[in-house]
Amino acid sequence: xDLHEKRQLDLAEHMARVNKHVAKARAQAAPWRxxxxxxxxxxxxxxxxTADSGFKDWTGHGHYLxxxxxxxxxxxFFIFGTVAVVGLAGKARDVLTPAVGSSHAAxxxxxxxxxxxxxxxxxxVALMKVPIGQLLVGGAVxxxxxxxxxxxxxxxxxxxxxxxxxxxxxxGDYIRLKSGxxxxxxxxxxxxxxxxPEFPLLGEFAxxxxxxxxxxxxxxxxxxxxxxGLSRGAIMTQVDHSLRRLGTDYIDLYQxxxxxxxxxxxETMEALHDLVKAGKVRYLGASSMHTWQxxxxxxxxxxxxxxxxxxxxxxxxxxxxxxxxEMLPFCLDQGVGVLPWSPLARGRLTRDWNETTARxxxxxxxxxxxxxxxxxxxxIVEAVQAIASERDxxxxxxxxxxxxxxPAVTAPIVGVTKLEHLTDAVAAAELELSEDELTRLEEPYxxxxxQGF
Length: 453
Known about the structure:
Layout: H1 3-59, H2 62-100, H3 102-129, E1 145-150, H4 154-166, E2 182-187, H5 202-205, E3 212-217, H6 232-246, E4 251-256, H7 265-278, E5 281-287, H8 291-304, E6 309-313, H9 327-334, E7 337-338, H10 358-362, H11 374-391, H12 395-404, E8 413-415, H13 419-428, H14 435-442
Helix pairs in contact: 1-2, 2-3, 3-4, 7-8, 11-12, 11-14, 12-13
């Protein structure tokens, strides 16, 4: 062997040793790369899910920046998530090959790739559909009722999966309910809302005896006569479904969602009374109906010694005040608490008159409301804006503060999907409006027909 051949052989042996060390280093680094990629994917997902509210707070123009930033973060989530899954699958194959053989290790690798890939896909699509932040509800309030409604859609199914899969990473104190909070659940659309599993988590974030849970019955939840309405069969069936969804053995406030003209009042009131006597429900409430209907239901309860309604959930805000004529005086006289829904007129009172939002353009129920007295409504919205500017507070605070100044109102129902919604609601409880400000807000109102039921 000449010198040249010897040098080539030495070089080949050296390169083999180098490649062996590189392969070993890569094998050792693979898990760390996968872990780092997973962490980066989670960060990208969280940033993407909160970009809308964050950039709106910083710049006042969250809509366009949200699309850009959220798209980039979601793309990063898919990239880093894929890298993490591929890295973990490769590591699993390398670890198992000596023990079970290459063929069985390959099966494990493909299984990890399949499960991991589906997880990344589901979470990614959910991030595009429903920001995680919209699922986290909580806060310390006493004069505001937190409400959340479940409507069947593909995004809700994905959102539930996001919440379950991200549960180990949640910070408990962020969504922990405080003593005295009220949490409202309003399912009314489709039987498949059972795919939203977030509510049993309430038990992890609060002591059950320190919070008030309210829910409803009447709306269509499934096929057949027991899937909707206020018959005895429907009430008995649906209360058990609500208890299962909420993960609790009793409901503090069980409310009928509107009046049911197809069922005798006696049947409804006796069934509700039986729920109270059975311990499944503590108190009963009603929602939007004509005052004479509510009076009749209370009278039937009194006549038979059954449980009366202790609350009325009706539509009441600055641009819909028809309840002041009969319902609110009756509730005030009878000691019935009033829990107004749509206290901000589905956002109309919180933005400029001609400004539109994604909700205002897609909310079908909104199209049936607040369209009878346009000139009056515009003046009220302008008055809210003017007072908010003078007091250096948000418009939502002014509109909610006005409600809290009304003697019949116990607590308005606020739908909290962003942190600023919660802070506005809490701040409204401390905002005192002057007599002049109350007059300016109320003066433009003109009579109209009741709507919403």
